[in-house]
Amino acid sequence: MIKIAVGTQKKSHKIKEEEKRKTAYHEAGHAICSHILPTQDPVRQISIIPSGQALGYTLNSPTEDKYSVYKKQLTEEIIVLLAGRAAEKIVFDDISGGASNDIQRATDIARKMVTTYGMSDILGTIHLGGNHTSDEVFLGRDFNSTQNYSEKTAALIDDEIKRIIDESYARAIQILTENRDKLDFISEFLVKHEIMSDEEFKLAMDGISMEELEEFTENVRKQSEEENATKEKDWQIEQERIKAEEAKKAQENKKPQNDQPRFPWEN
């Protein structure tokens, strides 16, 4: 499931320690905001192992089917998308190009909120423009479709999208600043272990110490090894049983049947 969602892990890629640290903070930013904001799906796994086109990922899986979208949910989704960039700014006072896809997705959501879903208090509950795509030249205008609004409205669309993005980015900065200790803790763990499970993440957010978390991680690893060893042993036993049955059947097929003639003239 993870391979389909984020791509194949590229463990052979050698990443510099500083790059790993920056990626760890970036992903920790996504995870913390996703955990704190109530409308977002729970964090299933965090990784700083390069996968697909990304240096890392934060995997959120829905717990139930969703049939509609709401303004609060979309706004908080934008905050989560911008949280990686926000974490980089807080910790390093610098930003990377790794958040480009996050920014594009966040902008697309904000645009739909304004032009399609009627979620702008300034523009009201009206549909503006055609079917917008991510290839648009400007935030509020699509030169590939017919523009059914004025230049003044186009400027308002741009302003509204920028307002949503700016306010969401500021909220991400606020959340991560208030949870700076968790940001540092999770990043430190990721740099060392590269992957953080949902259980480890929850314990980290609950305030567990690094020593206790390391002990928990080691116990989980040992338990997993024991379960794998048991499964392998059971598999070997099953394979031996299948081979024994096949050998028995093959031996029985070789035995002459008393009710069958051995030669044609015995009919």
Report on the architecture of this protein.
The chain is mainly alpha-helical. Helices cover 59% and strands 4% of the residues. The chain has 8 helices and 3 strands. α4 crosses α5. The model has no long low-confidence stretch (mean pLDDT 85).
Q: Given the structure, what is the number of helices? A: 8
Count the beta strands.
Answer: 3
The SSE order reads HHEEHHHHEHH
Rough outline: elongated
Beta fraction: under 5%
Low-confidence stretches: none
Strand order of the largest sheet: 2-1-3
Rg is: 28 Å
Structural class, from helix and strand content?
A: mainly alpha
Per-chain topology:
Layout: H1 2-6, H2 17-36, E1 43-47, E2 57-60, H3 71-92, H4 100-115, H5 151-178, H6 180-193, E3 195-197, H7 198-205, H8 210-254
Helix pairs in contact: 2-3, 2-6, 3-4, 3-5, 4-5
Summarize this structure as a short list of keywords or feature phrases.
mainly alpha; 8 helices; 59% helix
